[in-house]
Amino acid sequence: MPYNPLDIFEIHDNALCISGKSIAELDYSGIKPPCYIYSKQVVAKKIKLLRDTLPKSIKIHYSIKANPLPALVSFITDHVDGLEVSSMAEMKIALATGIDSSSICLTGPGKSYEELEIAVKNNIVISAESSLELHRLDEIGTENMHKPSVLIRINPTYTQKRAGMKMASGSSQFGIDAEQIPELLNWVKDSCIDLHGFHIYSGSQILDAEAINFSQKKTIELVKQFTSEYNKPIKTINMGGGFGIPYFSKHTPLDLNSVGKNMQALSPVIESIHSEQPINTIIELGRYIVGEAGIYVCKVVDKKISRGKTYLITNGGMHHQLAASGNLGQRNRKNFPVYIANKIYSPITEVVNIVGKLCTPLDLLGDNIELSKAEVSDYIVILQSGAYGYTASPINFLSQPKANEYLM
Ligand SMILES: *Cc1c(COP(=O)(O)O)cnc(C)c1O
Hints:
The protein is elongated and about 70 Å long.
């Protein structure tokens, strides 16, 4: 059966339901659109699928940047092995879950001295993105008489061709160029740094299992090479992630079985890498865990026809859901899966443009899309909104009301 994001949720009486309740019932009980609703059940299902399909030895980390809602992060933390953070605020959200801080990893370019210092003092693992950052970590370690736990993030020489968003290879602000690493490793040996291992993250939103398998194989080979040059045991390999989810009709879901098999095939190579205990092998995922679990809901407040085109004007918009408006890195605008939540299927349909409250033509949530015929007070739902939804949107633009966020 082809993938249909509607299948993630239940439909009763032609209405999309979460936890057995329709959007109208939820609205009546105080769950007020414009809002995001995240389903714990869907998140738990995704993590279980990962656990069931990937080798048992693989540690799954959640990348908070995909969705930093504290209640959601806290729920996810009970189901995963660690958290990936990229800012002071994310670090605080992660620490507040009560997770063992050595299972938190701080990544990202341009970390401030203060961020590094707080990470070191809290025993958080730091993925170093530049040689200057390594030197700062050495300084902080020496000053505090506390060895920083560090991964070196590698900018590899191979290219991840099929990522929705490339984040490694060639010239990059991420990681340290592979060819600079041997010399740095010599320096690290005499520094105050406790080098736990290496990190590679090559890109986001990858639906092609072959591409993931290729980069994971290359990652392990590179780590093996660097570890033998380092000539000391390592403890950790963070081999990235980038697992994508389908957004548009031409997308097919990632073949997770293939990724699992490839990881299994890599385990002897991982076991052959110089270490004193089994290597902590991590994948870090954001979108794959939360993307399908979240919906964005807004309400139709006006309907009009302008020169032959029908507009549904909502109380939401791209200030809440930028990605669905096509303005978050899309080259050709495509519609997210959008429905009338209280009339999912209807014999009477209409081609409409769905827009938000912002005074810009960019604020388009659905372009020329055929939906059940809608009226004022109907609910618009945008599926696949759990990752890079609210958190990646310009919420202050036009000073419109914020969206509510609910975890159910
Ligand atoms: C953004 C990011 C992730 C998460 O990416 P997803 O595509 O949401 O899984 C993981 N690791 C790093 C280093 C990142 O920058």
